[in-house]
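Quick one - first record:
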Amino acid sequence: MARERYKRKSKSSGTKANKQPSQFSGDRVRANDHILINEFLFRRGESSLATEIVTFFADHEGERFKSTDLARALGYTESKQLPGFWYVLHKLQEEGTLDKDSNRCYGMSGADASTFEAHLELAKPFPLPGKKPYTVAQNYSGHITTHPNGYGFVDVEGFDDDIFIKAVDMGGSIHGDEVEVLVSKVPDTYASKSTPHQRCEGAVLKVISRRVTTIVGTLTKANRKFT
């Protein structure tokens, strides 16, 4: 009886494992992936990744690859990396640097260019959204979303893009607070939240209102200071 129960349990576990979806289940960038895209491109750099992709195709002249095979070949296999990788790949296609055939395989387009910079010069401009841009040295108010690593993003009503706040510039704000932000950097071009590329940056000047007014925790004393 014990042996039979073990067999049934093993069979059930194996079936459950087989039902787990593959992390390469698709290359479609979804709107709610924008946070993963932002974080990945902030660390990796969009231009750097685009150059890596184009260089790979230049080294494999005449060859075509499915998006999943391309991501695997370049070492991007983690689920949190893939939305950012798909975004850059799709953008290169929209710009005309790459094309995709009926078999959903990517390759260099027929444009007469041999370098990434030359391809960008020949490519059609990436479409801009219809919402107003930020201005450097201008103050804006919005609600902040924080990340466990310490940095955050401020969403301002009427602007499709959000403002990146470094950990050192959080100004004592916490998740959900309404804050006033001074914009310090504005990219030359914009993309919508579902297709972000460059990032507006700023610093929190003050907290306008707190989302949470009461925090429960333990106060400890060290070196004559409470923390």
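second record:
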Amino acid sequence: MELSKEVGLITAKGREVTVEVVISVVVVVVAAVVVVVVVVVVVVVVVVEVVEVVVVVVVVVVAVVVVIVVVVVAVVVVVVVIVVAVVVVVVVVVVVVVVVVVVVVVVVVAAVIVEVVVVVATAAAAAAVVEVVVVIAIIVVVVVIVVVAVVVHSLRPSPARAVMNVHYKY
């Protein structure tokens, strides 16, 4: 390879490749890589969102089932205790104790459900932060591509410079 008198290179096969063509090819390759990276990031974000929705649905369904089971068990226990209390008056103290225990169990289960919902909400907030970071990264990548395109455009030889090169060539 030898450096030609004009802006460019002469390849081994005698074809001329200008600096502008080389820079354009590099910019296209970099832009393609950036597009692939952005697509991968978007796919990852979508997968995270889908997983997040599935987790929230599963947690809500489990919470509803647990609440229904606890309420049914509490009602059955209270009804059984009341029936026994009607039959045996002495059991009234036991009824009060069982009702208090059932109420405490219901309150504890409700507190656990609220804690699970808070944890899920915190995970959703973290996912929102990740989304904002991804959007900012995409904006930065687009700005970099625009800056590179402007620089490449400014490196192109102007027609006036080409005319001057012809006059001063010999």
